[in-house]
Amino acid sequence: MSAAENAHRLASRAGAGHSVHLVIALRAANVATHLGDLSGARRALSRAVMHQGRVDQDTHVPKWASFVGPFEVDYAIADMYVRADQPKRAVPFLRATVRSIGDGLARNSASYRVRLADVLLSAGEVDEACAEMSAALGACSGISSPRLTNKIRDFRQAVVKVDSVVARECAEQIRTTAQGSAT
Q1: In 3D, which of 1, 6, 37, 39 has the Cα closest to residue 24?
Q2: Are 19 and 55 in contact (CB under 8 A)?
Q3: Which one, of 124, 121, 123, lies nearest residue 174 by Cα?
Q4: For 118-152, what is each residue's pLDDT tens digit?
Q5: Where are the domains of the chain?
Q6: Please, which residues have CB within 8 angstroms of residue 101's CB and are 6 or more apart in sequence?
Q7: CB atoms < 10 A from the CB of 145, how many?
Q8: What contacts 167, CB < 8 A, 6 or more positions away?
Q9: End-to-end CA separation in angstroms for the chain
Q10: What per-residue string of b and e applies to 88-101 under the rule 16 or more CB within 10 Å gives b?
Q11: pLDDT of amino acid 181
């Protein structure tokens, strides 16, 4: 029996609601995705979608499970498509993630915008990728995160290889923004 199956069994035995099962399904999808088990990821994501549709039936949600929302499901689906080297299929899910995350999670919102920009660039949507990166840079204002900074730097290294005016302007915007935050 897998760890995820065991977790679902224990959660069911304890009377846990759909939010808890949703968190377990998302973790199982993440593990399967990172192991390259796309059929396992799809199964786990199918369970996640089913539980997401029923979280409103929960009468008690543990604090550690209360964070989970539709954006987590969309992001997990997008991650699966990115790992499967299908960036165009990931884009709509990342767009939905960015739209639904809200303003309360500024660092996550900025990180998801950077991820969307990166995937758009991989999908060949240079202009849209650069527009999204510009929005991400605005969302990053006042956020100090080495991980986020590295993602932006990686995007810049990729976009400088693209021969277009928009790509050059985007790379310059990232460079000047990085210089401004270093002072």
Answers
A1: 6
A2: yes
A3: 121
A4: 999 999 999 999 999 998 888 777 777 888 889 99
A5: 101-183
A6: 71, 108, 109, 112
A7: 13
A8: 126, 130, 159, 160
A9: 54
A10: ebbbebbbbbbeeb
A11: 60
Residue 75, Cα to own-chain centre: how many angstroms?
Answer: 4
**C-beta neighbour count of 29 within 10 angstroms:** 27
> What is the SS3 string spanning the chain?
CCHHHHHHHHHHHCCCCHHHHHHHHHHHHHHHHHHCCHHHHHHHHHHHHHHHCCHHHCCCCCHHHCCCCHHHHHHHHHHHHHHCCCHHHHHHHHHHHHHHCCCCCHHHHHHHHHHHHHHHHHCCCHHHHHHHHHHHHHHCCCCCCHHHHHHHHHHHHHHCCCCCHHHHHHHHHHHHHHHHHHC
Taking only the tens place, the pLDDT of each residue in 85-124 is 999 999 999 999 988 886 667 777 888 899 999 999 999 9
* Residue 174 tokens, joined: 């990232």
Here the tokens at position 56 are: 């409103």
Judge whether 126 and 162 are in contact, CB under 8 Å.
yes
